[in-house]
Amino acid sequence: MSKIPYVSKLSSAYDMARVTNTLSLLMCSGVPMTDSLNIVSDSIMDINLKKAILESEKQIKEGKSLSAAFGLHPKEIPNMLVRITKVGEKSGKIDHVLAELGQYYDEQVDYMLKTLSDLVEPALMLLVGLVVAALVISIISPIYGIVGSFSGG
């Protein structure tokens, strides 16, 4: 299902919202960064992103910053997350910055879901209309046949 273009984008945005919100909450609660990343990796659907998060945890244990560790995975972790994480590290407000970014991703997911439902709704209405038309025809056709046999007889 992750091969479908729109669903892939939606899934990615959902995972990023999950990563940023969970990481922000854990860091705000005083959970160490490495433990936070380990917990976050358990909540992610995308296998590649999960691997990137776990590899980032190893990089942090070796002394790299979170933004530097995230920056090593440009395919899985968006550049915007890397840059904003770097700003949060420099300002000392990384938990707040991640919370704001999580809110952005939440809004993006909501918008994408609304757009998807707006696209699917007309197709479903058409499908229901066709089913109702088929039912009406299948019920009325035999009635016309019976009425025709009485009047033609």
Distance between the termini: 59 Å
Poorly predicted regions: none
Structural class of the helix and strand makeup? mainly alpha
Query: Mean pLDDT, rounded to whole units?
Result: 90
Question: What amount of the residues lies in strands?
Answer: under 5%
Rg for CA atoms? 26 Å
Number of E-type strands: 0
Notes on the protein architecture:
- It is built from six helices and no strands.
- By secondary structure, the protein is mostly helical.
- Helix 1 packs antiparallel against helix 2 (33-41) and helix 1 (5-28) runs antiparallel to helix 6 (94-152).
- 22% of the residues are buried.
- The model has no long low-confidence stretch (mean pLDDT 90).
What key attributes describe this structure?
rod-shaped, mainly alpha, 153 residues
Describe the SSE topology:
Elements: H1 5-28, H2 33-41, H3 47-61, H4 66-71, H5 79-91, H6 94-152
Helix pairs in contact: 1-2, 1-6, 2-3, 5-6
State the gist of this model:
The chain is mostly helical. It has 6 helices and no strands.
